[in-house]
Amino acid sequence: MSIQYIKGVGPKRASRLKKLNINTIEDLLYFVPREYENRANFKYIAQCEEGEKVSLKVKVWGYPTKLRPRKNLNIIKVPVKDETGIANLVWFNQDYILSQISMGDNIIVYGKVNYFGREIQITNPIFEKGKGSKIGSIVPIYSLTEGLSNNEMIRIMKNAINDYAYKLPEILPDYLRSELNLMSIKEAIKNIHFPQDKNRYLQARRRLVFEELLTLQLGLFVIKNRTKDINKGIQFKSSDEVYNFIEKLPFKLTSAQERVFKEIEKDMEDSKQMNRLVQGDVGSGKTIVAVLAMLKAWESGYQSVLMAPTEILAQQHYESITKLFSNYDIKCELLIGSLSNKKKEQVLKDLKNGNIHVLIGTHAVIQEHVEFNNLGLAITDEQHRFGVKQRAVLKQKGDSPDILVMTATPIPRTLALILYGDLDISIIDEMPPGRKPIETYAVGVHMTERVNNFVKKQLLEGRQAYIVCPLIEESDTLDVKAAEELYSSFKDNVYKDFNVGLLHGKMKPQEKDNIMGQFKNKQIDVLISTTVIEVGVNVPNANIMVIYNAERFGLAQLHQLRGRVGRGEYQSYCILINSSNSKISRERMRILQKSSDGFYISEKDLELRGPGEFFGTKQHGLPDLKIANLFTDIDILKLAQKKAEEILEKDYLLLAEEHFLLRQRIIHMFGDRIDDLILN
Ligand code: ADP
Ligand code: MG
Known about the structure:
Elements: H1 11-19, H2 25-29, E1 35-38, E2 53-60, E3 65-70, E4 73-82, E5 85-92, E6 106-116, E7 119-129, E8 138-141, H3 150-164, H4 174-180, H5 185-193, H6 198-230, H7 241-248, H8 255-269, E9 275-280, H9 286-299, E10 303-307, H10 311-324, E11 332-335, H11 341-352, E12 358-361, E13 375-380, H12 388-395, E14 402-407, H13 413-419, E15 424-428, E16 439-444, H14 448-460, E17 464-468, H15 476-492, E18 500-503, H16 509-520, E19 526-529, E20 542-547, H17 555-562, E21 573-578, H18 583-594, H19 598-609, H20 634-650, H21 660-670, H22 673-679
Magnesium ion binds next to helix 9.
């Protein structure tokens, strides 16, 4: 029902509430406070501490007085006491107080404590005579919009709760509520807005968070199951050729790579559509696993596509994959924006008539006019750089092709189940042998010269270096400017005896490729760059990574950047120049020095910084959460995941009567996103 049915809500208020996305009474009841003011924190005067907000029961023991220390300033002072001591209530420019308080009154006050020498003052308190209704409770503070005050919101909410909370459907089945000892929905809604005490508040919140996360997780699981059922996939042939190919590789697969490929192979040979995420730290060797899958697709007569987030990376994949397939009749092609029109046309034509077996490219491969002959396998590399939508479009280029997504951004399983809830997950949790650990140093700005000397020494020995300057959040242009400045100063001064190159995001793809090519061919010794080199670039001779203003990067991102070195036979170094003195940034640097485990690092990053943009639910195509926080509520999330699995084990499609309302809620929560997610 529309919010206009609530007492005190006319068209005007309704339109203001609409601005807060509150359209129905249910929306309103689920509109939880942003924070609370605890006016139930009763203390004695002697217990009051400087700066805290307290409630006091006091008696006025002297005459209220008015001081006028200067023009435009009236101070009302009221002396009060309780069994433990005395204090002054103080108001500024609120003369009307004088007519409301007299000597001998018993009053309740709520306000902030200030000490002036030995005098205790409560400044601008709110007060009530008698038993009181404003003080002594926990007061909700709502996010508001213009023309709507917190007090109005409280009144509206009280009416809504009194008249409608009992009508809220109990979507959690009884057995679950009693097993987990969860409050009823009615109690929970009451107590989330107007908690009787802290404990009831916590219980109310726990119930609502659980409800929300259970709905989210169940929805994602159901979607995943549905997708699998609906989308009859391709059944690829089983083959020995892949294993011959593995035999001939210049290295032995790690057992993690073997295991993950087995998982992929099983998916591919199954008649269901594969939807698999491969997570593996930088350098763990994800590409070769994708290559095996492509070989397998080719054997069964299907085309594959590999989409990478940058031209540099696409180019690099193209080169190495062409080489790997050189003994086969596999035609690989590259499709990127910077190709000449003529070349593009040729590629598109060959793709459509099936002359190309493996297509490698950037976003260019998902453009409308790109048509495949029979796409059987679609792979995205560095998935975190793409949105859910792009993955969906890629998928539609074929008739239920198998889907493989690869990412180097490690996230804990609990979160992966949510953020990639529609995917099965494989993890490459082992590094190829013989990698020398990268020596990582964090230094202050005063060490810059020594760092430069160290870099020069390595360059003289024939190595190459990356120097990364930070992304300046709000402005790509500033970002580029910083890189350009650093470049021209290095080129003419510090590194004047070497070849210095510059790479940044604003360059034309062609230029970038040129520069990257020169770096690969060792025509450039020192590459000054923004974070565009973050993903995938592979130059084994480069063994130093210097990162300026390292404190501005996420730890996971620093770890990715560091992954650009340590790819060859030489001892590699990562030098983090930290220009902040804060304790937390020193601690963050220390984590990188200590660990080379991407999972550990990203967990620590979460602890220290909280979830960054990457974890935005929107980017992952997920519904907004109203109450729960995926990170701080991780324990409840785990519980919800466990229960969701149990529920679906019993009732695969949530068709049982006791799950009917849960099902409705899922549909409500996901709305039209359900289509997007199922398409995925
Ligand atoms: P990422 O997982 O970061 O994409 P890559 O697939 O680019 O890593 O692999 C990094 C490097 O490791 C490549 O040069 C690749 O040839 C090499 N590599 C992959 N697997 C192995 C292995 N089992 N043994 C040795 N080297 C390997
Ligand atoms: Mg890679």
